[in-house]
C-alpha cells in the first residue's frame, strides 16, 4: 500500500447531511487541538468561488429561472471543469503542508460535477498526505477492480473505467472494539 494514492471515501446516509457537517466540524477541531495540520475543503464553496471569480455567480442568481436547464448545466460544468478549473483551485485550498485533508460537498455539486471525475483529475496533482472525501451514498469495489459510487444511494451504478482510479472505502477498515 506504500505506492497507493492516499485517497479515502467515507460514505454516509444522505439524510444525515446536517449531522455530518457537525461531525466534520468537531473532527477538525479535535485533530487541530491534537496538533495535526488538517485542512477542510467544501467542493460546493469552491464552485461558488469559481463562479464569482469568472463573473457568473451574479448572472446565474439573477437569470437562472430564464435559462434552459441544459444551458445552466453546461455553464456549471464548464466553469467548474475538474482538470482545468476545480482541481487547481482545490490544490490551492489544500495548501502546501497539511497532514490530512477532509473534503465535503460532493452531493451539493451534483449533477454538474461527479465525485469520480474529481478523484481522477486530482490523482495527477495528488499530494502525499491522506485525503478523506465524505460521500452521501454508497461506494463499492468488486473483485475485478471495478469501483462504483452511487450518489444518494439511488443513482444507477456506473462502473468507473479508469484503471488508475484509486480510493479506499474507509468502511472496509475494521476498528477495534473498546
Structural summary, described in words:
- By secondary structure, the chain is of the alpha/beta class.
- The chain is 38% helix and 20% strand.
- It is built from six helices and seven strands; from the N terminus they run βαβααααβαββββ.
- α6 links the parallel β3 (100-104) and β4.
- α5 (82-94) crosses α6 (115-122).
- The protein starts with 6 loop residues before the first strand and ends in a 9-residue tail after the last strand.
- The model has no long low-confidence stretch (mean pLDDT 83).
Helices and strands in order:
Elements: E1 7-12, H1 17-33, E2 38-42, H2 43-53, H3 57-63, H4 69-79, H5 82-94, E3 100-104, H6 115-122, E4 131-141, E5 147-151, E6 159-160, E7 168-169
Parallel strand pairs: 1-4, 1-7, 2-3, 3-4
Antiparallel strand pairs: 4-5, 5-6
Helix pairs in contact: 2-5, 5-6
Considering the chains and any ligands shown, give keywords for the structure:
7 strands; 7-stranded mixed sheet; alpha/beta
Beta content? 15-25%
Mean pLDDT: 83
Q: Count of helical segments?
A: 6
* Ends apart, CA distance between termini: 27 Å
- Give the helix proportion (percent range): 25-40%
Low-confidence stretches: none
Can you summarize the main beta sheet? 7 strands, mixed
Q: Rg, please?
A: 17 Å
- Order of H and E elements: EHEHHHHEHEEEE
- The SS-based structural class is alpha/beta
From the spread of the alpha carbons, the general shape counts as globular
Beta-strand segment tally = 7
